[in-house]
Amino acid sequence: MPVIVASDLDRTLIYSAAALALTMPDARAPRLLCVEVHESRPLSYLTETAGHLLTELGDEALFVPTTTRTRKQYQRINLPGPPPTYAICANGGHLLVDGVSDRDWHESVQARLADECAPLSEVQDHLLRTADPVWLRKHRTAEDLFAYLVVERELLHEEWVKELGEWAENRGWTVSLQGRKIYAVPKPLTKSAAMREVARRSGADLTLAAGDSLLDADLLLAADLGWRPGHGELAEASWTAPGVRALPERGVLAGERILREFLRTVRSR
């Protein structure tokens, strides 16, 4: 029986330059491996050691990259190790099988959203109507499934985020603030549902997961064992649950520690 390792990517396994949290003296900083280039510029990194660990993990378990990124954004990432058979994109809206979206899965997700949630257009209208141009920088939709704003965090009013969350709750949506992005995501659109589908297809009897944000909570709860880093939404809220371990490491070294925990658990079976 395979072991599934479903891990969030951004700020869990891979990190932008701003999120690396290299607090040690320069001479002791870890060597970094660039795993994403965007518009001819390096964008995301992990440590070289993490790269080796990820390669080993891909040989010993069914590694499933699990992200809120769109398919196009995910495909910019070039992770070490064997190409993943499965990947979860758009917060569970797309299940990639050998790099191609599974149409049956996507259609089943769309049907559930139509039955259970207010339409994306209503949420978009509300976001644009209520967001303050002083702090709003961009408005985007992702895969026609959810919406997000790019904001100036230091100018953002926390009360507005709270009010948005209450408004969304009554319409079957949830809100997550991650760095400079505010996500509005339908509640049934979850990483955990897609992970369960991978487990069903692969016959896995053990699922491991990691993530740092509110949108990862359902994934961590659904896994047999989970880990979260010492930064991010979940850490800020001191969130934990049975079977979920809160790690002290922050930044890119947290990604390395998470991979060590995955490998240790896989090898101890």
Tell me what the structure shows.
This protein is α/β, with parallel strands linked by helices and 269 residues long. It is 34% helix and 26% strand. It is built from 9 helices and 14 strands. The protein has helices at 48-60, 71-74, 103-116, 120-130, 158-169, 191-202, 217-222, 233-236, 252-267; strands at 3-7, 32-38, 41-47, 62-65, 86-89, 94-97, 100-101, 136-142, 146-151, 173-178, 181-186, 206-210, 225-228, 244-246. The strands form 4 sheets. The chain has a 5-stranded parallel beta sheet, with helices on both faces. It has a 4-stranded antiparallel beta sheet with strand order 8-9-11-10. α1 runs parallel beside α9 (252-267). It is globular and about 50 Å long.
Set out the fold topology.
Elements: E1 3-7, E2 32-38, E3 41-47, H1 48-60, E4 62-65, H2 71-74, E5 86-89, E6 94-97, E7 100-101, H3 103-116, H4 120-130, E8 136-142, E9 146-151, H5 158-169, E10 173-178, E11 181-186, H6 191-202, E12 206-210, H7 217-222, E13 225-228, H8 233-236, E14 244-246, H9 252-267
Parallel strand pairs: 1-4, 1-12, 12-13, 13-14
Antiparallel strand pairs: 2-3, 5-6, 6-7, 8-9, 9-11, 10-11
